Each structure stands twice: as C-alpha cells, then as structure tokens.
Input
Amino acid sequence: MFMKKEINKQRMQAISSNITKYRKERGITQKELAENIGITPSTLSDYINLRSAPSFGVIQKLADFFGVQKTDIDSEYQLMNNIKSTSQSSVLSKINQISSELGKSRQEKVLNFAKNEKKEQDEEDKKIVHLKDEQQKQSIDLADLVDDSKVDWDKWVSFDGRPLTDEVKEAMKQLLGKRLEDK
Output
C-alpha cells in the first residue's frame, strides 16, 4: 500500500512539474490555463499543489492546449492505459476460454446473452447523459434535461468551460424536447 501511495505521489509531482513548465513556456497564468481547459482555477491549484491528480480527460485537454502528447504531461498515462486494456482483455480472454469449453447450444446462449446485453447498453446510451461534478457521477435521462427541477444547468452544463447564457440554455432545452418528441 505504501509503495502505491509513493508511486501516485511521484506521478502527481511529475504532472505538476509538467503543467507548470508548459504553462510558463506559454507565458500564461494558472487562472488563464484553467479557463482555457475548462476547469476552475482552484482545481488547477489542487493539481499543482499535489492535493489531487487530474483525470485522463483533463490530461488530454492539457496536452491538446499545449500541443504535446498526453505522455508529455503524464508519463504514467500509457502505462495506466495498458493496465486498463490488459484488464479488459483478461476478462474477454476468460469469457472466450470458458465459452470454448461449452457445447454448441450453450455457446449460442452465451452469444445471444452478449447480443442482448449490447443492445440494452446501446439503448441506455441513447437515453442517458452522464453528468459529473467533483463529488459524484450521476446519470440522467435525456427527458430530464428539459425539466429545470431535475437538472442544475448552471452547475452541470457549460460549453468550452464557460457557463451558458439563458438564451442558449433555453434553445438547448427546446432542441432536446423536440428530439425526444421525434423518437
């Protein structure tokens, strides 16, 4: 456990150093950088002061903004991606191994089950928007996005890191409502 914490701390220090290096090369303030990548200045400060580590999405935004590779910001990025990929392929490998030991009719059941799961997932993905704030991840049905009592537009919805105007929010709600009616 101690080793894992030490590695994470070293990773956070490297990310912090790289963010600072590229920010200074650009000659911009932390506040300007935060605004450009769509996070709050306090969140960027947390990254710089090793209180938290940026998500892969933020690392991507930083890399895009600075015109560098993700590994130039976070050298562990490739390693972590490989671990995640290996973990996923390990599950698939186990599924394939077990399936290959089944008789043909049972293999067809596994295949049908997988097809149904994929279909369900695709249907859910069409209806659900994942909204995330710093504390929680919440799924919301698209129909809820047109109801102000169910979605805090000011907190969860922005464009390019900036809050939406009331006109834009209203237009989005109308478009979403129209889209749902068409389905």
